[in-house]
Amino acid sequence: MFEAKLIQGAILKKILDAIKDLVNEASWDCSSQGMSLQAMDTSHVSLVAVQMKADGFDKYRCDRSVTLGMNLSSLSKILKCAGNDDTITLKAPDDGDKITLVFEAKNESETSEYEVKLMNLDSEYLGIPDTPYSVNVKMPSHKFQRICRDLQQIGDAVTISCAKDSIRFAAKGDLGSGTVNLCQTASADKPEDSVSISMQEPIIQSFALKYLNHFAKATPLSPQVSLSLSPDVPLVVEYSITDDDGSDFGYIRYYLAPKIDE
Amino acid sequence: LKKQKLLNEYFHVF
After folding, report:
1. A46, A233, A262 member nearest B3 (Cβ)
2. pLDDT tens track for A58-115
3. Angle at A137 between CA A133 and CA A142, to 5 degrees
């Protein structure tokens, strides 16, 4: 039997909003450590990896590791039926062909129960090497979302270049060009407003803004976003997920292959 | 013009 209860059900709603437009179908790998998902988009240009730790749930039981293959847009539609303050419980028998979702309203007066069919997905896994990155930038996630949205008006690709204490996003297209320059902040008064850059060597790389704007749908999950870049390896965009009492619940990590000169 | 690379060129597919 697999059963996972999350009092802060809104986290699960936001995770599905953050991945459903990028990946149609994916499998949740559930083990005693927690729930994880890894899937590429259909073009194999980007990949999303989600991790939710077992001890981040309010109740977590996983007798045997199970793989729950699902259509994510269906799951997202069901999760839209849950209120933002609802407790969400996922339940699946070990050899079942469906998963049950239970939504309990805060005042315990209302309980909803939905069943979603499971799918047999022969998902291919990618081995992602743990490489040290030349550049890591931590910045406010809403700033990253706005920059990607603004620059997509100008062109379909952004060139990210990093110096010691600043990061530059540049785009150009038929109507013209645009650049956004962010300087590293000193000790910002609010940590979530800070921009911090650690650079081993300068980089300059280009990426398709279409995918970055998909990634930015994870913005509601985390006040900060972390960008990791190295020459000629995919970009990593990571949103760490903490719950209300600030403990680490997991992360959403996106990988994006670069665009290179012909 | 820039060519879009694929993840399979960087990560090993199992």
Report:
1. A262
2. 999 999 999 999 999 999 999 999 999 999 999 999 888 999 999 999 888 899 999 9
3. 140
Q: So what's the ipTM on this one? A: 0.96
What does residue A187 show for φ and ψ, rounded to 5 degrees?
-70, 95
Q: Which residues of B touch A43 (CB under 8 A)?
A: 6
* Contact flag B11-A124 (C-beta cutoff 8 Å): no
